[in-house]
Amino acid sequence: SKAGESICKWVIAIVNYSDVMKIIKPKQESLKEAMVELDKAKSELAEKEASLEKIRNEIARLQASYNASLGMLEDLTKQKELIEIQLIRAEKLLNGLESESKRWEKSVGELNIDLHDLVGNIMVAAACCQYVGVFTDKYRNKLRESWIRFCTQNNIPITSGLSLERILTDPVTVREWNLKGLPADKLSIENGIYTTNAKRWPLLIDPQSQANRWIKKNEGIKVVKQSQAKYLQTLENAIRLGAHVLIENAGEVLDPALEPILLKQTFKRGGQLVLKLGDTDIPYSQEFNLFITTKLPNPHYLPEVCIKVTVINFTVTPEGLEDQLLVAVVRYERPDLEEQKDQLITKSAELKRQLKETEDKILKLVSEADEDILNDEELINTLEQSKETSIMINERMREAEQMTKEINASRELYRTVAIRGSVLYFVIANVAMMDFMYQYSLAFFTTLFNRRLKMSAKSDVLEERLEILIKDITIQFYSNICRGIFEKDKLTYSFMNATSILIRENRITAEEMNFFTRGPATIPQVENPTQFNTDIYINLISLEEIHANFKGMKESLVDAADTVYWKDLMASEDPSRLSLPSKYEDTLTEFQKLLIRKIIKDENLMLYIKEFIKNELSEEYIESPPFNLANAFIDSTNTSPLIFILSPGADPIPNLQNLAKTMNMEDKLKILSLGQGQGAIAQKYIEAGKANGEWICLQNCHLSSSWMPELERIQEMQSEETTNPDYRLWLTSMPTSVFPVPVLQSGIKMTNEPPKGLKANLKRTFSEIEPIEYEN
User: Fold this and answer.
1) Which of 236, 336, 413, 588 could bond to 592 as cystine, CB 3.0-4.6 Å?
2) pTM of the predicted model, to two decimals?
3) What is the pLDDT of residues 343-361, one digit of tens each?
4) Nearest alpha-carbon partner for 439 in 632, 648, 208, 252
5) Closest C-alpha among 289, 247, 294 to residue 264
């Protein structure tokens, strides 16, 4: 039944339940126990977790503290490293600037003084640049001293002992000028300063071409002459491109076309600077530079020219020429020394340039540095490198300077030869005062000087060699110059040689020379207690004022013992043959004796001068060398003309024809007498002669004054390379001021006067006879 089924199901269910409960009950009890354990474990876990969280928080705090400490350590380490670096840099900076600070301290002191004296210094320097260049050294110094005195008197601050070299240039620039050929003497350096600082374009009086050589060493300079057909076109291009131009051999009159350039008549058009040259407007470059030189030794420029240019006198000085001749002597006698010196000069100039650049670089870096100079690593490193470079350069410079002293000491042994050469040159330069035709260039002089170095007798003993050279150049220059001056001037030239040599050796004083040429400076107002002529007495006692050797002259003239000598001297026809009183005979120089004899009997002056020259030089210097056309020809080149200076009654053409016959040039000798309309023919002759190696003789140049500028142009334009080596140009002329100076200076001059007296006639006759003719 259903009830039974239900009860059965219930029983079964109970049994199953009982079975299950038997299994589950222990598990439930275990569960309860586990849950108790779990709750206990959870409670413990919560406690542990809380403790762990606390530990974690502490770890986090410690980690943060640790990280902060690490950051601080890193910062401190960096600061330490930076401080160490800065200490090193500071040490480098102090070491690097130690020597510079002394120089800067000195410079600051000098700059403060210069700032105080700025007005006076610049005023005098500007005046010197503008006005004194035309004068010689003596007058330049007088002007400068008068301006300094004016400033001092009017309380205008000015540096005592003002140096233009310090104010307007620097040693490195001057050294570069010297390397380019500017002589190193004070006057030449001043000229260089005036040339580079002049507001107006410089016109350089340059008879010896020293300025020419210096300016031509400038890179890219264009050289033109006013005689060239297209020289204005060259100028125009230079103005456009900003080039430098040198106009050579200017005369006393400048081309009017140059006026806009000389006056710098520029104006602006469309924002561009323009200059009007002729009918053309040319863009004017500020880099354009113009130099003008003239070979005229004493040009007379009109005021209209002087206000357009700055005239600067570049005439060679004795000191400058001495240095140049010393170079020539040492280069021939000791080429090793001169080569070393040249290398040292170049090396010193380069080292000084580097040193200046280094010093300027240091100053620039320091001035441009940040507020904290120690943070500028590039500056410190550069400074250290610069310092090392500076030390090295200074060391090398000290070595170079020491070696220079040693070389100069060796070179100075040859100074006596250079001094003699310098003295002889200035005598030759002054010979032109006797006659316009006696013009000689420095190039002629140096060529002959170098030739004598090669041709003079040799000796291994230095003292003997120097004596040989001095004697040789003295007599050879005498012979060469006498060849080109008239008989009446030869004794004067010889006397100038003797006195100039003695003046340079301090054996004649300026007072003695002035007494000889002008007489006593002041005439004493005294009574004449002697029986001698009053003028003679006054002149003799005036000698006491010029030299100590003449002391006691007044007493000697009235002394009983000395009067015997004085009476004999006064009465003699030739006082030079008699002795002076013993106190003067033994102490006076030959020139001082000459002064006394001139006073006593001045009509015999020529005889006394000959005796003086004979005693001081030798007898050779009072005899005229015989005329020798062949020797003149040997000295000539295809570009140097041979010039006969004519005198009344002299005809050199037969001598020239004889020489042509001897040289097998008889058929190639062409003679043309100049005059009206002959210029064009002469030019054709010259062009043909250059090409074919002919001898062209142009007679009577003084009669063709209008063609002389063309002759000058022809000579200027010729070149030794493009001219036949056999070509020679012979010129004859009476003395005339229209003869071109450059042609005179470059030519070999000869006079051929008729011999005067039996001795001169015999010498001329025998000199013209060949040895073979004696034998026959």
Assistant:
1) 588
2) 0.74
3) 777 777 777 777 777 777 7
4) 208
5) 289
